[in-house]
Amino acid sequence: MDSGRFLLGPELAGFESELEKYLGIDYVLGVNSGTDALILSLKALGLGPNDEVITTPFTFFATVEAIVQAGAKPILADIEPDTLCLSLSACETAITEHTKAILLVHVFGNCTDIERFVKLCQKHNLFLIEDTCQAIGSTWKGKKLGTFGHISTFSFYPTKNLAALGDAGAIATTDPDIADRIKLLRNHGINPQGRHTLWGYKSLLDEIQAAFLKTKLKRLDIENARRRKLAGRYDNAFENIVQIVQGQKGCKSTYHQYAILTPKRNELCSFLAENGVETGRYYENPIHREPVFAGTNLRLPVAEKASQAILTLPIRPSLTDSEQERVISLIRGFFEHHD
Ligand SMILES: *Cc1c(COP(=O)(O)O)cnc(C)c1O
Fold this sequence. Notes:
This protein has 339 residues and is of the alpha/beta class. It folds into two domains: 10-217, Type I PLP-dependent aspartate aminotransferase-like (Major domain) (Aspartate Aminotransferase, domain 2, 3-Layer(aba) Sandwich); 220-336, Alpha-Beta Complex (Aspartate Aminotransferase, domain 1). Helices cover 37% and strands 15% of the residues. The protein contains eleven helices and 13 strands. It has helices spanning 10-23, 34-44, 62-69, 88-94, 114-124, 176-185, 207-217, 220-238, 265-274, 301-309, 321-337; strands at residues 27-31, 52-55, 73-76, 99-105, 127-131, 139-140, 143-144, 151-155, 169-173, 243-244, 251-252, 258-261, 310-313. Strands 1-9-8-5-4-2-3 form a seven-stranded mixed beta sheet, sandwiched between helices. The structure holds pyridoxal-5'-phosphate (PLP). Pyridoxal-5'-phosphate (PLP) is lined by residues 33-35, 59-60, 62-63, 105, 131, 133-134, 155, 157, 167, 169.
């Protein structure tokens, strides 16, 4: 506060360069939120009217909303039944002459075989965009998610694995031209000479949030390791009881959510709530079932089925061993009586 520098100062530059090192990528640019990161990314790639972007219905609303806000057309394709990530074959089927990009979402911190998407995009000359808002620190065969596509987005919303004390987000890319465009787009198109070179926008990650994030980034691996430990215990406890949502072999998840699929979802959810255990139903409405899509008759059966069966369990790093043991014994007890 003494510095009097609240925007576009040394804290932001410091956080951006720490995150570049952490991810192993050339450029990270802070913006106001994960939602803005998506919108500005699509704009930086030059996407707009008549351009189709294929993405998943099983995500947070912002993923699809950003495509619409950027002026392009979202095309929803179905997901894989085990990872709940976008299905490669469904994407392939959805490609048309208007397709410009595939927008992957590493939902819950998990991913599918991303190298196959890289190849598919090369083959059809498409941009690959990674919505990494739920997957900071996750890897595919040892390489961080958010470093495979042309551009990737991060959210530091207070519930995310790396959390700001308010709104914040970032864009990562290996392409210097894209990075330059993002710098213009996030600040009214102003170039280093102070001239407005394009119709930009205003979306900044402020110095105070950047300072918090730079400090909290140092603890991210410790917290993600704790999430993995909790997830491993759930895996062992539920192996033969329910279907566990997991990344494809090769994915090391950071478990933004730990999700199970069970046809007894509603009963289990109420039973846990009665016992003081808070769970989530992400995403009990796939995006094509939201009122904004009223009138379209899109059927995406895998996503629809998953939405009926999904339940996410407590996995915050501060969950204690004994709290987790209680959750496990409640769930095991529930299935002993409901078989
Ligand atoms: C949180 C999230 C966003 C949006 O991030 P905000 O910072 O809340 O705007 C976008 N996509 C996914 C998958 C998210 O989980």
